[in-house]
Amino acid sequence: MRHVSILPCAADANAMTDTCIPASSTDAPRAGSTVNALVSPRGGLDVLSRAEVARLRDAAAGSVLHDLLRRCALAVLTTGSALDDARAASALYPDFDVFIRPHDRGIKLELRNAPAQAFVDGQIIRGVAELLFAVVRDIVYTTTEVEGDAKFSAATGAGITSAVFEVLRNAHILKPRNEPNLVVCWGGHSISREEYDYTKTVGYELGLRGLDICTGCGPGAMKGPMKGATIAHAKQRRQAPRYIGVTEPGIIAAESPNPIVNHLVIMPDIEKRLEAFVRLGHGFIVFPGGVGTCEEILFILGLLTYPDNVDEPFPLVFTGPRAAAAYFQQIDRFLKLALGEAVCQRYRIIVDDSEAVARAIRTGVDTVRQRRVQSQDAYFFNWSLVVPEDLQHPFEPTHASMAALDLHRGQPVHQLAANLRRAFSGIVAGNVKEEGMKRIEREGPFEIHGDPDIMRALDDLLRAFVGQGRMKMSGDYKPCYRVVV
Length: 485
Hints:
It is a single chain. A 7-stranded parallel beta sheet has the order 10-9-8-7-11-12-13, sandwiched between helices. The radius of gyration is 22 Å and the shape is globular. It is built from 17 helices and 15 strands. It has 3 domains: about 5-140, MCP/YpsA-like; about 175-390, Rossmann fold, CATH 3.40.50.450; about 390-485, no CATH class. It starts with a strand and ends with a strand. It is α/β, with parallel strands linked by helices. The longest helix has 22 residues, at about 355-375.
């Protein structure tokens, strides 16, 4: 970064100066230790008009937006954290705050009582600073430019897709001159060491084949493929590889970005985050995970079972090490039971063979490229994919909305998939999102109702996740749900 001013936490918090006062080289940052800093941007926010600066400052001063900005900034400043409780970082750094300060050429961020782990020898870590300004860019832009604009109306599917496109474009994620090469990797943040090592091996094989990585930006199966790909990209002397992290405000506080992410984008909600994945990606891999991973699987299968998408090329591979074979067998059984036997035609399961996974994805991406050429669709954004509105509209998981979910047969498969996706989304909220956790504490666990055989299979699946430690990285897990059979 061009300029960072730091004062030790013990100094006067108001005494912000342009003189860098580095910590002693013998002092290692301890959890909870803090500094004060004034950070200058690099990139899209370093050249702004006075009117743009005023809009950023005024928007960020609002109580709701300021709190959101504070929570997301804290998540970035604790990049690499092993915490998966949205409130844990705030409890560790209760006095942290962030303010947008006008500057001649744009803005600076004033950080008060910021985590010392984000700084080295008096300088903010470059990658952390880039992600920090990505937070400001996306949150403030969404609030000031997207929300309330008629052409991004949340009432229509086309408006929602336009909003997704606009946020991605503003974040410079869309690269019109790039050949299709982006692989979306989904999987859990709480996985075993063997599973994590396997995700790295797959990422390595993908990187050798010139493929970039997009994940949910957190730890575990979201970090492993990126880490493996970095070595392969270095071997292939690949210039400017992309490690894209796509998140949303409710998740980022519980899943801080991993340090390898070099392009971070914060979508307004989980539904737009999921749509961003499927619009951006050219190939998709699912590693072992918990309820969040099942939510992603059901979202994508809700798309692929929609009649308008029957002929859409969409390489989708489920994979893990040999020890994960039983995991995918159970996932496969649940999907066939709930959505019908034909659903398995839309995915492949490859166990313990990272090269086969990478070859399958590479072949699939080439097929996607051919289809885009024939249909004259963009490489960088899949416009031809039809996303049903059932999968686009935000779902707020409350006790009433969770109990009212229609999890019965007799409806189109894509609609049942959408409702099952909402059930898993509610469990994610109860597990890691601050508002969801508060609801559970106030009113007890969510209740989930549906066809008895689907409910039994769902209960078995969730119990398996708990037994395998896939619900929480640390501490005892207390279920936030109750499946009514």
